[in-house]
Amino acid sequence: MQNFNLDTATFLRDYWQQKPLLIRNPWPSWKNPIAPDELAGLACEDLVESRLIMRAGESWNLEQGPFPAKRFGVLDKEACTLLVQAVDHHVPEVAALIEPFRFIPNWRIDDVMVSFASDGGGVGPHFDHYDVFLVQGLGKRRWQVGGMCDENSELLPNDDLRLLANFEATDEWLLEPGDMLYVPPGISHNGVAVGDDCMTYSIGFRAPSRSELIGYWADDLLADMTDDDRYGDTGLQPQDNPGEIAPQAIDRLHAMITEKMADREAFVRWFGQYSSTPKYPDVDWRPEVPLEVERLRRALASGIPLHRNPASRFSFVCESEDSLMLFVDGQSFQCTDETISFAKDICARDTVTIDRDSIQSDAVMRLIVALYNQGSLASELSHE
Description:
Elements: H1 8-14, E1 21-23, H2 36-42, E2 50-56, E3 59-64, H3 70-73, E4 80-84, H4 92-95, E5 109-117, E6 131-148, E7 171-175, E8 180-183, E9 187-205, H5 210-223, H6 247-261, H7 264-276, H8 293-301, E10 306-308, E11 314-320, E12 323-328, E13 331-336, H9 338-348, E14 351-352, H10 356-359, H11 362-373, E15 377-378
Cofactor: Fe(2+)
Pfam families: JmjC_2, WHD_ROXA
Protein name: Cupin domain-containing protein
């Protein structure tokens, strides 16, 4: 999946977050990465987020998974769509779909949602707050795109689905296996399966809202504040009217807030941990038997590679030439000297083979063990 026909520089300059783009079969050889039956199997699992959307005339109905296996055997297949989130966390071949999009920073990547629809199936006209690449896996889907929407756009009276009440298409395409459509945030779009066995892969990219950032950042700050940290006005002077909140008081009060909110170093650490927090933290990826340094060293010396967990999020922030902070699954790791090279490599690639110098480094080995034991890295240690 890594061979990919897309001029990324032109795309980022002319299309990213600006306008839709249809790309006909950017992969030299397309192969659908997951079978419909396997997708249905995932929708039956407790810790996998799934939905079933059915349309009857102008009426839309949503069911939340997990589903019993027999549910799929009795479905009225007319205009029916199964949606399964984060399939890349469970199927390596689906996770490989993300690789061509690594020109977009890791922290922006959300997941790969996979849909399976019968003839006429879809989720209705809507808009998203994030960028999405829609890759046709099997069958055909007719995509329409319209104008820009926002929170003031009128929606249908449906508590479960945010569907547009008024959708007017400005462009329309029929996508076949391997074709891809990019849709920027806010652009209305509607996809309808043409024929049965229609599978679509939605590669989504997160975009935190200002309110989300402020809210969660403030919550983090509050956790470390004490009730003794209070307003003070030593040197208070008499004022003409006791009802006035004086400019000096406003300045002090405002500074009490902004001094904390404007702490860039604290914000960096918080955001790195926040943005790398697993999408589904209840899923436990830790190994049954914790790894020890010497066993790891022997395994890596034999050439066994390390693999990132597809469900894990890796990113880093450079603090100086000889220091960086590595963020993995909501945890932070201070990296200096020999651990810096490893941290950069594991953020850039899904699989790395450790060189001899790093294998001899106790600091690198301790970092790898910590990541392995929290379920963020894996390796075929049975081959050691």
